[in-house]
Design brief:
This protein is α+β, with helices and mostly antiparallel strands and 449 residues long. The protein folds into 2 domains: 20-167, Four Helix Bundle (Hemerythrin (Met), subunit A) (Up-down Bundle), CATH 1.20.120; 177-449, paralog of FGE (formylglycine-generating enzyme). 29% of the residues lie in helices and 14% in strands. The protein has a 4-stranded mixed β-sheet with strand order 12-11-10-13. Strands 1-4-14 form a 3-stranded antiparallel β-sheet, with helices on one face. Strand 6 (276-281) and strand 7 form a beta hairpin. Helix 1 runs parallel beside helix 5 (145-167) and helix 3 (61-80) runs parallel beside helix 4 (112-132). The two termini are 26 Å apart. 47% of the residues are buried.
C-alpha cells in the first residue's frame, strides 16, 4: 500500500515532498499567493462594504481579514517561534467557535485600516520565522506543516470571502477571464466504469495533508459507473421543468421540508424572467449557461436530482477511487492526472476564473478512469457522512475536524474554481450541512454496475 510519488503520465515525477528546502520555498510561495488574493478580495470594496454583513450566513469581510492575521500569529509567531502575543485582547473576537457568524458585526472588531496593518505586521514576522525555522523535529514544523496549514487556512477564508462577494448586492467588484471551452464535449461519454477492487484511500505521505485525510488505508469498492463530468445547468433545468421541486417522492424528508419552508424552485441565485432562466453571478445578471456545471445547490437538491435521474450520488470512497486510482500500477495518484502539482491545463482553481468551465473542459486533467473535472470547477456532494478514517488522530487541534464528525455533515470533494491548489488535493475532504447552498457546490451522479 503506497501513495508515494511516482512517474506521472507525462514522464516526470511529482515534486520532491521530502526536501525541507523545497518545502520551505513552497511554503513561502503559498503564503505570498494567499496574501495577494486576500488583498484583492478586501481592496476591491470600500470600508463600508468591508464592515457590512452581506448575509447572516457570512462574516463581515473585515472579520475574515483580521481572523487570518490572528490565526497566523497564534500558530506561527506564538506556537512555532514562542513569541509574546502581539494583540492578546483580540483573540476572543476572532475565535470562530466563540462567536457565530451572525453575531460578529456587533463585536468591537478592528477597523479596516487597523486590520490591514495587523495582518501585514504578522505576515512580516511570520516570514522571518519561516526563514529561520528548521523544518524537522516536532510534528508541527516537520516538513513545514504549520506554514502549509496557515497558507491553507488563509485560502479557505479567501474562498469564504469570495462567497461573501457573491452574496453582496450592488455592481460587480471582481473580474476575471473566461475559462477554456470544452474541445471534445460532443463525443465525450456520459459516464465511465470503475471496476471493482481495492484501492488506497487517504494519505500518509502528503506533508501538508490535514488530519481528516489521514491515514492512508485500503478500501474495497464494488464496481460502479460515474458521470464523466459534473451535472450541468441544462441537465438540472430538465429536472426543474419536469416538476422536480414539486414532487415529494424525489426528496429526503428533511429536504422536502426545506423546499416547502423556503418555497424553493431552483438553485440559489436563479430566477425566471420572460420564459428564460437567469442567474446573478458576482454582481452580473446573465442567462444560465446550459453546458456549465450547476452551482449553488444543496446536498438535498443534488440527492433529489440523482433520484429523479434514476441514479445516486457517489460515495466518498467511489469519488476518490474514480479520481486517484491507477489500475495500471495499482497505486493512488496525488491528483487525477498524476503527481505533478496542478497547472492551468489541468483544472480550474485559484479564482483564475469566476465561474466553472463547461462540462468536458480540461482533458489533460482527467483521471485513469476517464472522469474529468474532478479537481476544481465545483465542490461535489457525495452520499457520505463526514466520518474519521480508521486510525484517525486529531492534529494539531480537535476543533479542525473531530468536532464535526457525524451524520450532520456531508462530504464534498474536489474543490471549486474558488479553491487554491494548496487547499485542494485528491485526498482533500470538505464537509458542510446538507442545507448549504451559498457555497460553490455542485455534484455528479453514479450508479451500480
Amino acid at each position: 500500500m503506497t501513495d508515494s510519488p511516482a512517474p506521472s503520465p507525462h514522464g516526470t515525477r511529482g515534486p520532491d515532498l521530502q526536501d525541507p528546502e523545497v518545502l520551505r520555498e513552497r511554503a513561502l510561495a503559498a503564503l505570498l499567493t494567499a496574501r495577494r488574493r486576500t488583498t484583492l478580495l478586501t481592496d476591491s470594496v470600500d470600508d463600508h462594504e468591508l464592515t457590512a454583513q452581506h448575509s447572516p450566513l457570512m462574516s463581515p469581510l473585515v472579520w475574515d481579514l483580521a481572523h487570518i492575521g490572528n490565526q497566523e500569529e497564534l500558530w506561527l509567531l506564538r506556537g512555532v517561534a514562542g513569541r509574546e502575543a502581539m494583540r492578546p485582547e483580540i483573540d476572543g473576537l476572532y475565535d470562530a467557535f466563540e462567536h457565530p457568524r451572525a453575531t460578529r458585526p456587533s463585536l468591537p472588531l478592528l477597523a479596516p485600516a487597523e486590520a490591514r496593518s495587523y495582518a501585514s505586521e504578522v505576515r512580516g514576522r511570520a516570514l522571518d520565522v519561516l526563514e529561520s525555522t528548521p523544518l524537522g523535529g516536532p510534528a508541527l514544523v516537520r516538513s513545514g506543516f504549520a506554514f502549509g496549514m496557515i497558507a491553507q487556512h488563509e485560502q479557505q477564508h479567501d474562498e469564504t470571502m469570495l462567497i461573501t462577494h457573491q452574496l453582496r448586492s450592488g455592481p460587480a467588484a471582481l473580474s476575471a477571464p473566461e475559462p477554456p471551452h470544452a474541445t471534445d464535449a460532443a463525443t465525450l461519454a456520459a459516464e465511465v466504469m470503475v471496476p471493482a477492487g481495492p484501492f488506497t484511500m487517504g494519505t500518509s505521505t502528503e506533508p501538508w495533508a490535514l488530519d481528516n485525510e489521514r491515514p492512508a488505508h485500503r478500501r474495497e469498492v464494488p464496481g460502479f459507473f460515474i458521470d464523466t463530468a459534473p451535472v450541468t445547468c441544462g441537465a438540472y433545468r430538465a429536472f426543474i421543468e419536469d416538476g422536480g421541486y414539486g414532487e415529494r417522492s424525489w426528496w429526503a424528508p428533511e429536504g422536502w421540508a426545506m423546499v416547502r419552508e423556503h418555497e424553493l424552485t431552483a438553485p440559489l441565485f436563479w430566477h425566471r424572467d420572460a420564459g428564460q432562466w437567469l442567474r446573478r453571478r458576482f454582481g452580473v445578471t446573465e442567462p444560465v449557461p446550459e453546458d456549465e456545471p450547476v452551482l449553488h445547490v444543496s446536498w438535498y437538491e443534488a440527492d433529489a436530482y440523482a433520484r429523479w435521474a434514476g441514479r445516486r450520488l457517489p460515495s466518498e470512497a467511489e469519488w476518490e477511487k474514480a479520481a486517484r486510482h491507477d489500475p495500471a500500477s495499482g497505486r493512488s495518484r496525488r491528483y487525477p492526472w498524476g503527481d505533478d502539482d496542478p497547472a492551468p491545463v489541468h483544472a480550474n482553481l485559484g479564482q483564475r476564473h469566476l465561474r466553472p468551465a463547461p462540462a468536458g473542459a480540461y482533458p489533460a486533467g482527467r483521471s485513469p478512469s476517464g472522469a474529468g473535472q474532478l479537481i476544481g470547477d465545483v465542490w461535489e456532494w457525495t452520499s457520505s457522512d463526514f466520518l474519521p478514517y480508521p486510525g484517525f488522530a486529531p492534529f494539531p487541534y480537535r476543533e479542525y475536524s473531530e468536532v464535526f464528525f457525524g451524520p450532520e455533515h456531508k462530504v464534498l470533494r474536489g474543490g471549486s474554481f474558488a479553491v487554491d491548489a494548496v487547499a485542494c488535493r485528491g485526498t482533500f475532504r470538505n464537509w458542510d450541512l446538507p442545507v448549504r447552498r451559498q457555497i460553490f457546490s455542485g455534484f455528479r451522479t453514479a450508479r451500480d454496475l
